[in-house]
Design goal:
Blueprint (H helix, E strand, L loop, with lengths): L3 E5 L1 H6 L1 H13 L5 E3 L10 E3 L7 H8 L5 E4 L6 H7 L8 E4 L4 H16 L2 H9 L17 E5 L3 H12 L3 E5 L15 E4 L4 H4 L5 E4 L13 H4 L6 E5 L8 H7 L5 E5 L31 E3 L10 H20 L13
Parallel strand pairs: 1-2, 1-3, 3-4, 4-5, 6-7, 6-9, 7-8, 9-10, 10-11, 11-12
Helix pairs in contact: 2-11, 5-7
Length: 341
């Protein structure tokens, strides 16, 4: 094989126009070698289908397999449940599912931003100062230097977060699914790595809990009432993974405590591609007024930096590395559908 024939899903063409434009320009100029973009209604061989979950269904995948489909690629981290369930079917087990991790640095950056804004009460201080109130000693504010933090999920994003925390003088613990025993000495990033089973042992030692977890059966509600109550105020929780990792009822109760603060980029209800004029959408389906609290810092699931030129360039680079690895027969990093990651 000298080229990988790629079909782009319609939603990618509609919502990722910068990315598609970069691919088309690179192919036409010859800058992007080994990639050929093909049409859905043509007769060309299709090796790889790059699409979001909305454009992946049983009928289409069967059709594409008759044209040689071998790879299904999602342009983001994480696998939607319906896609996972579909590809677990026996007739689709010959397909390889890949995901993008091009924006790990951007996501980690947002995690640190949320952490600093939360612990130093920046949003509240900004609001007060605009109203003439000079509150130099905000209640519940936390200086990170000399404190300890636990990073749940020590993958691409978690490692970037941990590096920054270490540089700020924070002792960092982290959990990794593949860890089998507590680490008595720090790794190359100065981080003490533990298995997930050690979470409750570590939580009483830390002032910061930062979640960088994918959505899997194992991570759903991994943080609940018991875990949150092991934290000693003043303390902070930040989530840049998936909202489902934290039990919402438990978080609502916990945030009522004095000296607690929550920063998150992910929510229990989220809008997809909200347009001007669309009705407002709350962050929860439950009667919790997250939007009205001053002790949370919230962003609309934008940590990945979609639309930033550097991130979109990284998206193209990441995709082209997949193409190169396929052509050269290099080891890929397919999704383990049993783990959904």
């Amino acid at each position: 094989m000298t080229t990988v024939n790629v079909l782009l899903g319609q939603e990618i063409r509609d919502a990722r126009k910068d990315f598609v434009s970069k691919l088309e320009t690179g192919v036409s100029s010859g800058e992007l070698q080994g990639l050929t973009l093909v049409e859905k209604d043509g007769e060309d061989r299709i090796d790889l289908y790059l699409a979001r979950g909305v454009d992946i269904n049983d009928e289409l995948i069967r059709q594409l397999m008759t044209r040689g489909l071998k790879y299904v690629v999602l342009p983001h981290a994480g696998v939607p449940g319906p896609v996972r369930d579909l590809l677990l079917q026996d007739e689709f087990k010959t397909l390889t599912l890949l995901t993008f991790h091009h924006n790990a640095q951007a996501t980690a950056e947002m995690g640190i931003a949320l952490l600093l804004a939360s612990t130093r009460r920046i949003v509240s201080l900004d609001k007060k100062l605009r109203n003439g109130r000079w509150d130099r000693f905000p209640e519940g504010a936390l200086c990170l230097y000399g404190k300890s933090a636990l990073v749940l999920g020590y993958g691409r994003i978690g490692k970037q977060v941990a590096k920054v925390l270490t540089a700020l003088g924070v002792k960092v613990y982290a959990t990794r699914r593949t860890a089998t025993a507590p680490c008595t000495t720090p790794d190359e990033n100065g981080v003490f790595v533990y298995p997930p089973s050690s979470v409750n042992e570590i939580l009483p030692k830390v002032a910061v809990l930062l979640l960088c977890l994918p959505e899997t059966k194992e991570t759903k509600n991994v943080i609940g009432e018991k875990e949150l109550n092991l934290l000693t105020p003043p303390c902070c929780v930040v989530n840049i993974g998936r909202a489902s990792a934290i039990n919402e009822d438990a978080m609502w109760e916990w945030i009522q405590k004095e000296g607690t603060v929550y920063g998150s980029d992910v929510w229990w209800q989220e809008a997809a591609n909200q347009k001007e004029g669309d009705a407002p959408l709350r962050m929860s389906t439950k009667p919790y007024n997250w939007e009205q609290r001053d002790d949370i810092v919230c962003t609309p699931h934008c940590a990945g930096g979609m639309g930033f030129a550097s991130v979109e360039d990284a998206r193209v680079t990441y995709f082209m590395q997949i193409i190169t690895d396929i052509l050269q027969g290099n080891d890929l990093q397919p999704v383990n559908l049993q783990l959904n990651y």
